[in-house]
Amino acid sequence: PSPSGKGAVDYVLYDANGLPLAVVEAKRTSTDPDIGQQQAKLYADCLEQQSGQRPVIFYTNGYKTRIWNDVQGGPPRLVHGFYTQAELKRLIERRKNNPDLSSFPINAEIVERYYQTRAIKAMLAAYQRKERAGLLIMATGTGKTRTAIALVDVLMKANVVQKVLFLADRTSLVNQAHNAFKANLKDASFVNLLEDKNQVGRVYFSTYQTMIGLIDEKNADGTRQFGTGMFDLIIIDEAHRSVYQKFGEIFKYFDSLLVGLTATPRDEVDRDTYALFGLESGVPTDYYDLDQAIADGYLVPPKAYSVPLKFMREGVKYDELSEDEKQHWDSLNWGDEDAPEEVSASKINKELFNTGTIDLMLRHLMENGIKTEGGDRLGKTIIFAVNQKHAQFIADRFNDNYPQYDGKFARVITHATKYPQSLIDDFSKKDLAEPQIAISVDMLDTGIDVPEVVNLVFFKAVRSKVKFMQMIGRGTRLCKELFSPEDDKKEFFIFDYCSNFEYFNENPDGAPVSTIEPLGQRLFKARLNILSLLNAKDDATEELKAVQQDMRQSLQTEVKSMNNDNFIVKSELEHVEHFKNDDAWNNLDDLAIGTLREHISKLPNQLEPETLEAKLFDMLCYNLELAVLEKNNTATQSYANKVIEIASKLESKENIPVVAEQIALIQDIQTVEYWKGITLPMLEAMRKRIRGLVKLIEKSTSTIVYSMLDDEIGDMQAVDIPVVSSGVNLAQYRKRVESFIKANENHITIAKLKRGLALTPTDLSELERFVFEAQEVESKERFEACFGTEKSLPLFIRSLVGLDRQAVQQAFSKYLQGSTYNEKQIRFVEMLIEHLTQNGVLEAAQLYEPPFNQVHYEGIDGVFSGRDANNIIELVGVFNQSAVA
Asked: What are the structural domains of the chain?
């Protein structure tokens, strides 16, 4: 297109039949690609006029590429690259129908519950609105996977999607989803990429880790095995922040519709996760909470018990042991250390394994756990253990105490277990009697579907609220005829031996969640920080300048090693290519350093892999160097002590030739003189000479001490579970609702309540609509579940906003006149006014209770005559009645 009406398109991608599939408008790398949007559209118009087929539009500057399928495809969007011929044909073929997704029936053989149907309709409505992503929050055990299957079924029948990718973070969850799809989606073909990476099908299954590796794999012709447009829909299992932070590049690479599935309550889902799906924080596409699922009868409720074990709560104190136990304590193998005076509670089951403690837990479980088979056999149980050795010790103690089960009843299922999936499969089978107890370390915390589980044992401390709720979710699933043909699973038991419920009662949000960047990224940023500080020095010595040059060179070498064809690197290609240029490193300013930190530090490189020990030592030394540069004496001393400790351990390896070569430096590091006037060049020289030796130090393994002390167990106490009795934390919900009401005191109906004016039925209807439809309140059901139904909504609001002081004073003005009433009577009325102003309501009975009976022990009757007392009570009743429509 030009003033003459003629122009040359940059690129056209043609089908084998000669019809145009795509038009590409390419701009210089220094030009904003959006400048070419209209030009590309005009080319597409011309090609459509010539051929009868409208091509898909791409416009790019080589770094940024946008796709614009302007026939039913929504607005332009950034993509990672160009579609393949097959992917483009699929897009164009799909234009032939513009289905009304709401008209397609949802397969009742896959999902039959109302909330699953509602969630699917919400997703379909979002896609119909050209939204490309949605998030479904559904309590554990309510059928997230089946909901996803039914959604895929509708989208495939509507020809909106043909190829689907299901992603999860663990092999067992991938296999579980694969089996569920095969059982319910009859007409599709399936590919489990963990088993066969070359098979072709319609629905693919993979872990995030596997897919990261597969995206860069090439076909024989050099094209990628998985193109940008390969999948029409990606299902993200357990969508939360850690998945986004670790594997977010997957979702940037594939240009597809997204649906996220999570059991994390919507108040706990972080802002970044909502942003990934294009949603407002706290507003998922649809949600179905735990309390609603229990109320509806689709999940069973937990009964939780806190079980006090003395050593687990108080630790072991030598002075409290019997004489025989003291002798036993002194005889234990404490390694190189003397027997301690005490072992704290936090070290029990980590550094001290006590047979008496574990035996008591097992006996308590076997006696109090829910039984099956007529009460003769412990029902299926998960014991959450601290680590592999702890889990194995529990299994050993069980086998010693219950040899009649031949070692089959309780089994360890962890990532360290050989063939863990076969054990999970056995544990999951309803008709298989063994194993009946699964002792797990992380592996069964999430996602495993075993409806027969009726006992959960918390034998480790948990501080993550999200994880705690996921673990509790292992027991919530329904199980028909678990006990007999007429007796279904109605509840499950939780036995907490580690005070987890007490912790979450005191800390409803759990411990703060922190994200640790990968070590490679931290090393890059540390060198960058050192370089930035050195660049700011005007009086640098020649030695410092040499270090500065070395830091710059090492960073540049790392950037130059980055593979431009790697899909993660390609997303930052503009910045990578810039910093591969030598000139970019001259006179780095704050903007350049910020770009390196934000866009480059996280990218993979192709340098020779180094040992973890060497990289950790580098990190220690860089932190030390930064502390020296910043003149932070406290941090310098702390890091120096760690370096000295490493040198001390290396000195014992002098018989190794490579260590012997550096023994003078190793010994020097351990002297006070070495650290006097320490300089950055000295530290860098030391780092380079020592880093390769650190791997020779044996990893310190903390000695586990096995004791046989008698522990004590107290009575188990039933406890509330505030963090899971509702889909959100009750305290947080209550605070949010109260804040919402107080923030809207000027709403016309709430203002009438505050002034003590009577409400009409219309007022009440409007008030209920305003409150119960508010996002902060969610629903009438949620409100009543939290606050109860004893108090009407107007009375509840009045109790929050109080009454207008002037209105109350005016009503009681008669009783404030000093000429008629005495000081005691006036003080009584002032107290009454204060109460109504603050609390909004006052029951007549309260006038005989504190603080009113502090004026006179008989309350109002001791202060006023019978007629005045009755009049005052009647006036209070008028205010109360005004809050009732």
From this structure: 11-94 (3.90.1570.30), 103-294 (3.40.50.300), 305-506 (3.40.50.300), 519-696 (no CATH), 730-801 (no CATH), 805-881 (no CATH)
